[in-house]
Each structure stands twice: as C-alpha cells, then as structure tokens.
TrEMBL record:
It catalyses: S-ubiquitinyl-[E2 ubiquitin-conjugating enzyme]-L-cysteine + [acceptor protein]-L-lysine = [E2 ubiquitin-conjugating enzyme]-L-cysteine + N(6)-ubiquitinyl-[acceptor protein]-L-lysine. Coiled coil: none annotated. It comes from the Eukaryota. Ubiquitin-protein ligase which is mainly involved pre-mRNA splicing and DNA repair. Required for pre-mRNA splicing as component of the spliceosome. Homotetramer. InterPro entries: Prp19, WD40/YVTN_repeat-like_dom_sf, WD40_repeat_dom_sf, WD40_rpt. SUPFAM superfamilies: WD40 repeat-like. The lineage of its organism: Eukaryota, Viridiplantae, Streptophyta, Embryophyta, Tracheophyta. GO terms for biological process: DNA repair; mRNA splicing, via spliceosome; protein K63-linked ubiquitination. Belongs to the WD repeat PRP19 family. This is Pre-mRNA-processing factor 19.
Length: 101
C-alpha cells in the first residue's frame, strides 16, 4: 500500500512542479512521477530519508505534459503517456543507481 506520508514528503520537495500521475513499482522501492515539466523516477529510501532521483525522462512530446506513468511488472521499464496522445516506453537503470541520468 502506498503511504500518503511518502507522497506528501515528496510533494513538499517539488516546487512549481504540477504532478499528474504517480506510480510505485511492485517492491515499493521506486516512485515514478509524471508532471508539468518532465517525468522523474526516484529511489525511495524511507519517509524521512532523502529520495534519490535516478532518472529524469525528457519531454519528447513538446507539450511539457506527461499525464500518466506506469512501471512494468519487473520495474525495468516505465510507460509514460503525454498530452500528444503518445505512449513512450523508457528503460530504467539496473542495479543500485544513485546518480541522475
């Protein structure tokens, strides 16, 4: 179950970033966010620990609006839907990635 505290903690760190969709992977270790400027994937430590942004996905639509995100069953891929009515599939870093890419 997704903790409301986790989402509120992250929302407090995002300024001027409108969130349209969030999705935790099956293990609860990663959180994907679709928003007004880009989509991001965070490695979730705990509610109180700082979260690591491991992937920033580009806005390939040119609209600046990713409207939905969904992890694949093995969390190796992320599907991102956008305002231009396209669905894009992105590969995610494998292993313990701590640097933003």
């Amino acid at each position: 179950m997704v903790s409301t505290e986790k989402i509120l903690y992250l929302a407090a760190t995002l300024i001027l970033f409108f969130v349209f969709s969030v999705d935790f992977d099956h293990s609860g270790s990663y959180l994907a966010i679709a928003g007004s400027d880009v989509s991001r994937v965070y490695q979730v430590g705990s509610v109180k620990a700082e979260w690591n942004c491991i992937k920033t996905l580009p806005d390939l639509s040119g609209t600046g609006r990713a409207t939905c995100v969904k992890f694949g069953s093995d969390a190796k891929y992320l599907a991102v839907g956008s305002m231009d009515r396209n669905l894009r599939i992105f590969g995610l870093p494998e292993g313990d990635a701590s640097m933003e890419s």
